[in-house]
Each structure stands twice: as structure tokens, then as C-alpha cells.
Amino acid sequence: MQKTIERIAGDAEGTIYEFAVFRFEGKDKAAPSAYLQAALHAGELPGVVAIDALMPMLAKAETEGRIKGPITIVPWANPIGRAQYHFGEHQGRFNLGTRTNFNRSFPLLAAPDARLLPDVSLGGADRRLKNRLVQLSLGSDIVLDLHCDDEGLAYLYIHTSLWPHMADCAAAMGAEAVLLWSEDSTGTFEGASIMPYQNVPASVARFDRRVVSTVEYRGMLDVDGALAASDAEGLYRLLVTRGVIQDPSVPKFGKFAGPVVPLENIDMMPAPRAGAILYEVKPGDRVKKGDRLATIVHTPGEANGRTEVFAPQSGFILTRRSRRIIRAGEDLLKLAGDGKSSDARSGTLED
């Protein structure tokens, strides 16, 4: 294993951001390559501890000569967001200087060629970071971006061009659901990893062996040793399943048995009033159209001081908010519906 330190110049003299990159060399040039990163939203930690649990497994495989394809690991991909605190609260989702989501505005290249990356020498530290992450991952057959939601199931975002080719990966990782998407107009890291392959020859795209996913490891508070070990085992199984690591003790994984939901089926349920949320449902619950999902207490103690929110269609609860205070118009939860949402959103679901 080789460790290097990447340095990103800040926007003022004397400011430099650093993050570690670990590389495991493969012994088979024909084997797939893999890139894994965590905490692009710097406060989302389940992926960080999963990588921490995965590293000894990779080190053991390296010692025993079982790593076939090269593996690149970035355990904490966002040093800018990692350093951001405001009034004692960590702020890792948005750049406080530009107000841009750290998982937006990645360059969407026309082909998988680093020479097409924009010149960001004067573009701001966050843009330099995003360019460098694309450079590190570009060309890898497997690219996983580890995130988490507020409170939720473990689920994967997968581009339609990779499904059902990635069904074995979803099964190996133990994902509870898959969301399929086809459009990226905002420049997510996942989009920057898969869109360059959409208009190149099939011999270059190789969708049958390509793996790209935003992995949502449940909720913000699910930072737990047992969960980290389980998630690490899932990542390891994926690498074995796709031939990056050789390990005959890992069983073959076939089809994914969980729900596969198009992005346009997701109802985000904007809150009709501001107040305190009393949830009636939790992630994983199956609901029918008309079921009460939550009650918002907006004028406590007064007549008509509560507003109920009902399911617009049948489906299951994918995620919900971790904080129980909400403003009018903010999203209450993700309902994965059996049909298309009347408020269907293309591209990303949230800011």
C-alpha cells in the first residue's frame, strides 16, 4: 500500500487543504480497477468508518497477493468541508464561501479524458478539489462515492445505463433499495463519473463491467462499529464479485432482490406548514395511498394547530428528516412510490 497526500491551494495566501490517498497495486493488468471515496459531504461519516474497517481487509489481501486490480481509496474526500464550523455546528454539505453543494458543479466531460477538464487555477479551492477528485477517479472501472442520508435505508443511486448490469453489486453490498436515474444537469460526482461514457464506443464504455454509484449508508447518526464492519464486508464482497480481489471464500452474488425505483417515482413531500414534526412512519415502512405520514404542530395548544400529511400514493418510506423542526416547503421524507410522482423531479432530488 502506498499513501500520498494531496494538497489543494486555498483562496488566500497561507491556506492549503490536504487529504490522504491510499493505493493498492494490482498484479493483473486485465483486472478491473476501483476507486472509493467517502465524506464528500464532510459530515457524513458512515462511509468514513466503513473504509476504516475495510482497510485491514485490503492490507491482508495485498499481503497474500490477492489484489488483482489497482484500488484507490480516499477516506475523507473533502478537507474544505471538514474544516467548516459555524457557531459550533459542523457544516460539511455546502461551501460556506460559495454556497455551492460540495456534490454539485463537478465537470461533466464529453469523454473520459482528463485533458478535457476545465482550467481551475483561478477558480476557487472547491473547484480545484473537484477537478482533482475527477482526475483521481477517471478511468476506474468501479467508482463508489460513499454518502448517507438523514435517516434512511441503505440504498444506491445507479444510472440507467448500468442497470441491470450492477444488480450483482447491489446484492453483494447488501443494499436495501436502488434508485435509477438518467439525467444530471447539476454535476454530481456520480454524474461526472458516468456521463463521460454515454457517447463513446461500447468498447470504451464497457457498461457490463463498469460500476458507478452514490452509496447512501442509512442516516447521519448511523456511525457504529458493527454497521461499519458490515458495510466494509459489503464493499469487499463487491470487489471480489467484480474481480478486483481474489477470494474463493466469498460466495457469488447474483440478482438483487430489493426494490428498484425510478427517480421520478420519489415523492419528497414538501411541508405545508412550519413547525414540529410528529412522524407516523419510519424508513422501510410500507404505506398505502391516504395513510397519514406525519403531523406538523405549527401553533401548539390552539384549535386547528396541527396539520396532517398523507401519502399521495402507495409505496415505502425510503428516508425521513433527522431534525424535527421544519419550515414550510422543506421536504419531510422520501416516499418511494409504486408509480410516478405528481411532483416528479429530474436529476438530483435535493439541494
UniProtKB/TrEMBL annotation:
UniProt-listed PANTHER family: BLL3975 PROTEIN
Keywords for the protein's UniProt record, in alphabetical order: Hydrolase, Metal-binding, Zinc
Protein's organism: Mesorhizobium atlanticum
SUPFAM superfamilies according to UniProt: Zn-dependent exopeptidases
Record's keyword annotation contains Phosphoprotein: no
Limits of the Succinylglutamate desuccinylase/Aspartoacylase catalytic domain: 31-193
Cofactor(s) in the UniProt record: Zn(2+)
Database matches in Gene3D superfamilies: 2.40.50.100, Zn peptidases
Protein name: Peptidase M14
GO MF terms, alphabetically ordered: hydrolase activity, acting on ester bonds; metal ion binding
